[in-house]
Amino acid sequence: MLIALIARDKPDHLDTRMENRAAHLAYIEETGVVAQAGPLLDQDGNMVGSLIILDVEDMAAGEAWAAGDPYAKAGLFEAVELITWKKVIG
């Protein structure tokens, strides 16, 4: 099952993102369920959120992955949405 995780950072939390970036990237590597990922950017090119496509067994696994993300544990996100996603192109 593919799940799109769309997370918006809390305002003025770029430092939190940068302080936890290495741990976040290591978590992605260690868990092996991320099909695609990248930061959301504002008009000035600053990172303000994340888009992560998870390839997991079910929504519960996606929710567990999201809860274990070092960014989430650091309190970076203002809002997180997980929604089933269907790949059509690419």
TrEMBL record:
Pfam families: YCII (PF03795). It comes from Tritonibacter multivorans. Belongs to the YciI family. Residues 1-86 form the YCII-related domain. This is YciI-like protein. Gene3D superfamilies: Dimeric alpha+beta barrel.
